[in-house]
């Protein structure tokens, strides 16, 4: 069971039997992704299915690739 707080600080509960699929957004070193990859709950409560960045030269791109996670890139100036 996964408990999440929403914007109103209400507890939402996910009671599914599969991990939640997550996409991690970053613009630099992807410190959140680094933390998620070392989290013992990875694969049980959630799985990282892709990452997204607006900077293709961000160091988090290499981290994603090394972890085998697809990287999506969109330059915000071209959006």
How does this structure look, described?
By secondary structure, the chain is α/β, with parallel strands linked by helices. It is built from two helices and five strands, in the order E-E-E-H-E-H-E. The protein has helices spanning 31-37, 59-66, and strands at residues 2-5, 11-14, 20-26, 46-53, 71-73. It has a three-stranded parallel sheet, covered by helices on one side. The chain has a two-stranded antiparallel ribbon with strand order 1-2. Strand 1 (2-5) and strand 2 (11-14) form a beta hairpin. The radius of gyration is 14 Å and the shape is globular. 13% of the residues are buried. The mean pLDDT is 86.
Question: Summarize this, please?
Answer:
The protein is 19% helix and 33% strand.
What structural keywords apply?
79 residues; alpha/beta; two-stranded antiparallel sheet; globular
Would you spell out the secondary-structure blueprint of this structure?
Blueprint: E1 2-5, E2 11-14, E3 20-26, H1 31-37, E4 46-53, H2 59-66, E5 71-73
Parallel strand pairs: 3-4, 4-5
Antiparallel strand pairs: 1-2
């Amino acid at each position: 069971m996964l408990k999440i707080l929403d914007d109103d600080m209400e507890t939402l509960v996910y009671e599914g039997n599969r991990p939640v699929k997550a996409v991690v957004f970053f613009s630099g070193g992807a410190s959140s992704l680094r933390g998620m990859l070392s989290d013992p709950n990875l694969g049980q409560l959630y799985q990282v299915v892709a990452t997204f960045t607006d900077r293709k030269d961000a160091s988090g791109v290499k981290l994603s690739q090394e972890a085998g996670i697809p990287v999506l890139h969109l330059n915000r100036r071209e959006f």
